[in-house]
Design goal:
- Helices cover 32% and strands 18% of the residues.
- With 471 residues, the chain is α/β, with parallel strands linked by helices.
- It has two domains: 81 residues, Chitobiase, domain 2; 361 residues, TIM Barrel, CATH 3.20.20.80.
- The strands form two sheets. It has an eight-stranded parallel beta barrel, surrounded by seven helices. Strands 1, 2, 3, 4, 5 and 6 form a six-stranded mixed beta sheet that branches.
- Helix 7 crosses helix 8.
- The N and C termini lie close together (10 Å).
- InterPro entries: Beta_hexosaminidase_sua/sub, GH, Glyco_hydro_20_cat, Hex-like_dom2, HEX_bac_N.
């Protein structure tokens, strides 16, 4: 059994012997580490365990933080107690951005649930939490300058399940907890589609629903009824809603919203959505996205958007989040090429690999299967960020696993959908390219099996996929 390290470090040298630890739980090993600041890549570190103890060298606090989590993964136990094997690890991330997205619009999830997700993602060296705060089903963020958005738009969830929203104190708590774990929170206000909830309080900004055959098919399969202007929507259909480009006051409204969002979330990115605006005229789409980009620019933040925004005019350096398949359609590939020409950077979230709400197999209780059918753990692992869309690796900002919550209403279901496939995304974001040294399936499945007992001790309710030889 190899060292149960996830994600796999850049360089690992193992040596005979082990350091005995006078502790009663694995994480108690962390205070033993002696930390020395050195020059090196951001978030990188060296972890040395030998007969003299544990030593960490890191260029920044994040590197030391990740080194300690690597140490915690190394800790084993035998009849004599806890120990750490002698190793010399030199490590740094492949990509600067390593994110997980949580959709809190389709189903509301508590601050405590979000905090636990932050903690567990940080242990796998993720450094960004993307919160999908608004959609057709709800507007989850309370704003002082527009309290009506949450007051009217957050009362329910898909299927009529309970709703909820986050106040300013909730946001401060989430942001602070993320910062303590070296994670940045990226807020998303989705537009011009996915905006039915906006129309509950601002009908003057909302176009009439566009009921395409695909919308009607989803209603037929999943229920939820036809979307009705002015009434909360609790179904699963997408692509029917839009803001009205010519609505008086829309740009001022967007400026007020994004200004307050920027004040609540101190990170460098504001995500403006831009996806699945199927009911929006193409000229109107560009006009509304341009309004949103100007609103984000006024805050001094970098705009991020789903890759469909390649059809609009985002500024150089903007971030495009690709959610198409590992093998892109020509339409999605063309949008990526247009974004590349405009100087865009990319976050990779291929739906048929690291959309964590996809079923593991046909028998999975929760989840959907529209992204090329169920996504096994192996399929979630066997892809490489640089091989998805034709862009230079230096223009790839990073990788983000996404959890949409149409079918995920509680924390146990959330955990079972996230774990273990989150580890696939962690390794794609941090480690070397697929096929390099330990970055291959057989090594991964063995190391993942070795991490299972630690997840059990932490109380994580993970899916015991038969693909993994769990210990």
């Amino acid at each position: 059994m190899p060292l149960a390290l996830l994600p796999w470090p850049a360089e690992v040298e193992t040596r005979p012997g082990a350091l005995r630890l006078d502790i009663t739980a694995p994480h108690e090993a962390l205070p033993l580490a002696q930390h020395r600041a050195v020059d090196g890549p951001p978030e990188g570190y060296r972890l040395l365990v030998d007969a003299h103890g544990v030593r960490i060298e890191a260029a920044d606090d994040a590197g030391a933080f990740y080194a300690r989590h690597t140490l915690a993964q190394l800790v084993g136990r035998d009849d004599e107690g806890f120990f750490a094997p002698f190793v010399d690890i030199r490590d740094a991330p492949r990509f600067a951005y390593r994110g997980i997205m949580l959709d809190v619009a389709r189903h509301f999830h508590s601050v405590a649930t979000i905090e636990r997700l932050i903690e567990r993602a940080a242990e796998l060296k993720f450094n960004a939490l993307h919160l999908h705060l608004t959609d057709d089903q709800a507007w989850r963020l309370a704003l002082e300058n527009h309290p009506e958005l949450a007051e009217r738009g957050s009362s329910t969830s898909i299927g009529g399940d309970p709703g909820g929203h986050y106040g300013r104190d909730d946001v401060r708590r989430i942001v602070a907890h993320a910062a303590a774990h070296h994670m940045t929170v990226v807020p998303e206000i989705d537009l011009p589609g996915h905006t039915h909830a906006v129309g509950l309080s601002h009908p003057e900004f909302a176009a009439d629903p566009v009921l395409t055959p695909s919308v009607l098919e989803v209603v037929e399969e999943f229920g939820g009824g036809i979307p009705v202007p002015g009434e909360p929507y609790t179904g699963l259909a997408v692509g029917f809603s839009s803001l009205e480009a010519g609505a008086a006051g829309l740009e001022g409204f967007l400026r007020e919203v994004f200004a307050e969002v920027a004040g609540l979330f101190p990170g460098p990115y504001l995500h403006l959505g831009g996806d699945e605006a199927l009911g929006t005229d193409r000229a109107d789409y560009r006009a509304i996205v341009d309004m949103a980009v100007r609103a984000v620019a006024a805050t001094g933040r970098t705009p991020a958007a789903w890759h469909e925004a390649g059809a609009a005019d985002l500024p150089e350096g903007a971030v495009y989040q690709y959610w198409g398949f590992v093998t892109p359609s020509e339409e999605h590939a063309e949008l990526a090429r247009r974004a590349l020409v405009r100087g865009g950077r990319f976050v990779l979230s291929p739906a048929d690999a690291i959309y964590l709400d996809m079923k593991y197999d046909a028998d999975t209780r929760a989840g959907l299967a529209w992204a090329n059918g169920p996504t096994s753990v192996r399929r979630s692992y066997e892809w490489d960020p640089a091989a998805v869309i034709e862009v230079p690796e230096e223009r790839i900002l990073g990788v983000e696993a996404a959890l949409w919550t149409e079918t995920i209403a509680d924390e146990e279901t959330l955990e079972r959908m996230v774990f273990p496939r989150i580890a696939s995304a962690a390794e794609a974001a941090w480690s070397r390219p697929l096929g390099s040294a330990e970055r291959e399936w057989e090594s991964f499945r063995a190391r993942l099996a070795g991490l299972g007992p630690a997840w059990e001790r932490a109380g994580i309710r993970f899916t015991r996929s038969p693909e993994i030889p769990w210990l």
